[in-house]
Amino acid sequence: MKKPPDPKGARTVSLPDLSVQQLALIYEHPLKHDVIEQDGAAAVNDDETVRKDSGSF
């Protein structure tokens, strides 16, 4: 049974169909962001140096 199309345009992909480069991007992208507390709420700090400072290359 096929899933109905997602209204936001998202789609399901099969992990075996992805290349090593695509998998690396999926893994590395969240490492570029840091969650911080700002004014009593969670906020995302989009800082390119976070990944390098963490040692995750």
Account of the protein in words:
The chain has 57 residues and is an alpha+beta fold. Helix content is 26%, strand content 21%. The protein contains 2 helices and 2 strands; from the N terminus they run H-E-E-H. It has a two-stranded antiparallel sheet with strand order 1-2. A hairpin with a 2-residue loop joins strand 1 and strand 2. It is flat. The protein starts with 19 loop residues before the first helix and ends with a helix.
Q: What labels would you give this structure?
A:
alpha+beta; about 25% helix; about 55 residues; single chain
Which value, in Å, is the CA radius of gyration? Answer: 16 Å
From the structure provided, what is the oligomeric state, counting identical versus distinct chains?
A: single chain
Percentage of residues in DSSP E strands: 15-25%
Order of helices and strands: HEEH
Number of strands: 2
Concise account of the structure shown:
The protein contains 2 helices and 2 strands, in the order H-E-E-H.
Topology overview:
Layout: H1 20-28, E1 33-38, E2 41-46, H2 49-54
Antiparallel strand pairs: 1-2
